[in-house]
UniProtKB/TrEMBL annotation:
GO terms for molecular function: alpha-(1->3)-fucosyltransferase activity. Keywords: Glycoprotein, Glycosyltransferase, Golgi apparatus, Membrane, Signal-anchor, Transferase, Transmembrane, Transmembrane helix. The keyword Glycosyltransferase applies. Pathway: Protein modification; protein glycosylation. Belongs to the glycosyltransferase 10 family. Residues 199-385 form the Fucosyltransferase C-terminal domain. This is Fucosyltransferase. InterPro entries: Glyco_tran_10_C, Glyco_tran_10_N, Glyco_trans_10, GT10-like_C_sf. The lineage of its organism: Eukaryota, Metazoa, Ecdysozoa, Nematoda, Chromadorea. Residues 72-182 form the Fucosyltransferase N-terminal domain. It is a single-pass type II membrane protein. It comes from Caenorhabditis brenneri (Nematode worm). Gene3D superfamilies: Glycosyl transferase family 10, C-terminal domain.
Amino acid sequence: MGHKPVQNGISTCTWRYLGRFVTIGVYAAVALFLWYTLVPTRSKERGAITLKSDSRDSNNDLEVSPAPVHTKNVVIYAATQFFGHPITTERFLATCPDVQNYCRITQDESEFDNSDAVLFHNADYRGTNEKYKKLENQRKPGVPYILWSLESPSNDNFRPESHMINWTMTYRTDADVWAPYGTMVKRKTPIDFDLNALWDSKKKSATWLASNCFTQNRRFDLIKKMIDKGFEIDIWGNCGKQAPQCSGVDNQESPCVLDLIKPYKFYLSIENSNCKDYVTEKFWKALNDRMTIPIVLARKYYKDLGVPDSSYIAIDDFGTFDEFMTHIKKVNSDKATYLSYHEWRKDWKVIIGSGFSGWCTLCNKLQDKEYILKHPKSYKDVAWWHSFEMCNNQIASKYL
Ligand SMILES: *[C@@H]1O[C@H](CO)[C@@H](O)[C@H](O)[C@H]1NC(C)=O
């Protein structure tokens, strides 16, 4: 048996004591990330940064996407659909056209025998199905079976056989193929940023756009309490009112959503579930083109991803709800304090991923067949790896 991932649960309170190691880990992760980004060729996995940068930002000095020099053609067999929709090369490798020259996705079962990897999207997997039994019995050692998940463990019913899955492809930093919703990188050279203009553009207090109102972590209760204590928050979407200027408010990509949110100073960026490394697009967008200060529930999730401390407000930094309220009211009204949360814009850059950002990386990782064969690994209990054990939905209760 190959290397097995560590299976011990880490309890919430142990995290606190691990803080120091986490900090070191974050630095290491950032260093590794920069190395990955900036060094064109690596011996084992050829480097390609696959996250898409905001195209309106001309400072693209951090993006290097070298295509491997000698590439082998690879085929990924997608054994499931994606939330009931086909998984196609065109859609899933859209952000990396160069990679499409040598990498292809197929859903045709007759190509299974010649595929270089077999991929399952967790939400579409039906373990009892004959087809999956066959895939289990006919596997080849050099062909990794991959679990792909975009969602927090709250939506996961993926229960494959033990050791069926070799690699994971998720937003988690310890996934075999890391596919974050976004990330932040330090700029090589700081840029000028007009903070005064930003302040002048901020006419409104805080906003929240959400469709999932009743979640285990009780984020809505917390937001309602903030409103009760006199902090102005406009709630859009299912949990609030429909935005008059755009009816399709659920579509985050729509330009009207950007116009809707940009005049606000703060964005309530509380995930529907608080789980290890689970930080979705809304947080990254709040920082990036929406130009708000995200208010998050717990600092550690963002610190773990290397996000600079001064770019967001974390509720759990405060001993009591009232202390937190005093602080945000101050940030709301005091220009200098407000702008101190935007200073990072000069030195850092947000790179927006998408749930699909892992595919391009995966194509690269599949290039080195020999390495893959010599370094087998599999998950004894991948369902545990992607389970509620990785979440803490009790954080808000202290403040309610
Ligand atoms: C995948 O897991 C299976 C079962 O544990 C193992 O036999 C195989 O060598 C692994 N393959 C890779 C590429 O890790």
